[in-house]
Design brief:
With 89 residues, the protein is of the alpha+beta class. Helix content is 38%, strand content 11%. It has two domains: 37 residues, no CATH class; 46 residues, no CATH class. This is Tc1-like transposase DDE domain-containing protein.
Length: 89
Amino acid sequence: MKRIEDDLLIVLDGAPYFQASAVTDLAARDDLDFVTLPAYSPELNPVEECWRQLQVALSNRFFESLDDLTMAIDSVLDQLSIPYMSNYF
């Protein structure tokens, strides 16, 4: 029995570009484990929580310049609460 702890776990959503030959060739490697999320399941995708936090912090705001927007994004990214990955698997 193969131990998943020894391998790198790759999580893919249902995007069509993950079906490209470069990705499917990687799936054949013994040291990588792939998990494909079900369609329309953002609650299972940790990056969606990061996007949600960015949206909450930056939506409904007016920025005078691109520099102001960039500084606001940088500030939010510094404070981002990264989801605890094991909650998702």
